[in-house]
Structure formats: structure tokens, C-alpha cells
Amino acid sequence: MQILQTTDLKKYYGSGDTMVRALDGVNLSVEDGEFAAIVGTSGSGKSTLLHMLGGLDRPTSGKVFVEGKDIFSLGDDELTIFRRRKIGFVFQSYNLVPVLNVYENIVLPIELDGNRVDRAHIEHIIETLGLQEKTKSLPSQLSGGQQQRVAIARALAAKPAIILADEPTGNLDSRTSLDVMGLLKVTSQQFSQTIVMITHNEEIAQMADLIIRIEDGRIAGDHNV
User: Residue 58's domain is classified under what CATH number?
Assistant: First the structure.
């Protein structure tokens, strides 16, 4: 079943001779439970595409469907709620709240939404990611790899339809990068979680199920790994 789909997605900046076609008619689909990597060089449009997929920015034209819902048919407030409930984000810079401990960071999106925390689910995530001994630690007391694990746990906590990962290993050394990628792969399998990751690292991309290549704002090809 398709959980994520775009149709003729475009994002243009400027006009006339100075117009930049960051996305120029992108059509892609990702199946439920699939781990997809979007690969491209700097300036290829992959970050813009991720922002569109997550509803963080609106396209010039085209559509994005998450679980069959045209997300840009929603008003700003509705889109914010939909994003919080259906889309998990993992950023290169972790984006943890410094004054909250690990456990509080993980459950924060659920509590912001006013929902009850599924403690068994959260404990399963914490165990899967090897964070049992760190739940009371502040982000400043963690290594970069540990902080990224917390960011992954937070993204999984609300049981989203998809997780979008923006260069999740960009601030990590090569060994820690492979550890984090292994954990993303495990979480994809254990939680049947759909993950879409952007990266410029070909080696990292090989750990995904599907590689989608983007060049000059267009899909240049895709293949299963």
C-alpha cells in the first residue's frame, strides 16, 4: 500500500531569468513499511523535497499525499496537527530540548498533542535503541550518537505514518553513523515503520530498501537495494 505519494510536485523561487526550479515536477511513491533513501548532491533539491513531504513548506504546485490525504488541502493549523500526529522528524542537529531529560524529550510530541503516553510502546523503543540507562540524562550529558538515538525515539513515539530523516548522520563520525543507520534499519523492521531519509552519502544510502536519485529538482531514477 502506498503511504506517501507526490504528483507533479514543483517549488520555484524567484521569477523570470532568475527563477530557481528547486523541484521541477517530482513524482514518487513509497510503500507502507519501506525504508527509502533520497540521494543527491548539494543543490539537487533533496532538502526542498523533504520539507514538502513533511508539510514544512508549501509547493508552488503539485500534491503530497500521506495515507491518502492531500496534506496541502489542509489549512495551516490543521496541517500543524496532522504533521504532529502523522509525521516524525529526525534532523541532523537533533533538535532536543536541552532542559528536558531523555524520557521527557521522547514523549514531548505526544504530550503536546494532549494524548496519553503508551508506556509499553515507549519502553520498547527505549530498549530497542539502547537508551535504558540514559532516560534521566539531559541532552548535554549525551554523545552525538546518543542524542540522535533520542531523536529517533522521539520520532517513533507517536506511531507516525512516516518518519522523515534529514541527513541523520551528518554530524556523526563514520562508525557512529553506521550504528545509527543500523538502528534506523532495525526500527523500520521492528515497528513496520516507513522511513524516508535524505543523504548525500552513497554508502549510507545502501542500507535502505529503496534508493531514489534526485538531480536538478527531478527524479533521475530509483532502484531497490
Answer: 3.40.50.300
Percent of the chain past pLDDT 70, that is, above it, reads 100
Rg (CA), the chain: 17
Whether this prediction's pTM lies above 0.85 is answered by: yes
Within 10 Å of residue 143's Cβ, how many Cβ atoms?
10
Number of domains in the chain: 1
pLDDT confidence tier of residue 225, bands split at 50, 70 and 90: low
What is the residue whose three cell numbers read 490525504?
69
Chain-centre distance for alpha carbon 198: 8
Cell numbers of 77, please?
Answer: 493549523
User: How many residues does the structure list for the chain?
Assistant: 225
- Percentages helix, strand, coil for the chain (3-state, rounded to 5) are 40, 30, 30
Coil vs helix vs strand at 83: helix
Nearest Cα to Cα of residue 193 among 156, 223, 152 = 156
* 161's grid cell: 505514518
Range of the domain at 184: 2-13+21-224
**pLDDT single digits (tens) 121-155:** 999 999 999 999 999 999 999 999 999 999 999 99
